[in-house]
Amino acid sequence: MTLVQMQPRSANATPVHRTAVDAMDTGAPQVCDDMTIEVALSVMASARTGHLLICDNDGLCTALVTQAQLIAVHDSSAYTDRIQLRDILGACGPFTSPVNTMAEAEHAMRYRRLDALPVADEQVSAPGVLALAR
Prior knowledge:
The chain is an alpha+beta fold. The chain has a single domain, classed as CBS-domain. The chain is built from 5 helices and 5 strands. A 3-stranded mixed sheet has the order 1-2-3. Strands 4-5 form a two-stranded antiparallel ribbon. The longest helix is centred in the N-terminal third of the chain and has 11 residues, at about 35-45. The radius of gyration is 16 Å and the shape is elongated. Residues about 1-15 have low confidence and may be disordered. This is CBS domain-containing protein.
């Protein structure tokens, strides 16, 4: 498993303890939790991404949702076009700190079997996302 934007290093290179903030994608779309599933899928398609950061009305990141999660909800028998992102979100997290090392973030992703992990500061403001390379 390799994280996006990890740079290979030569055998002679001095090990550097890169942090999550060094490798995160800062271009991840952030959307409000009152967005409908249909619109979220459209935003994802337009942005050509497999995940969205979900923020509340105060701009605080509350979750990350993947395309697979949205499609599963969309294809369920209980789906209606009025379902909003906040209706399908569980508990807040998981997140990684910008100061966590890449090794810590990668371990958390492997352990939780995540394809993407928000990088959030103490105020739960998500400055970016770590995503696995495909």
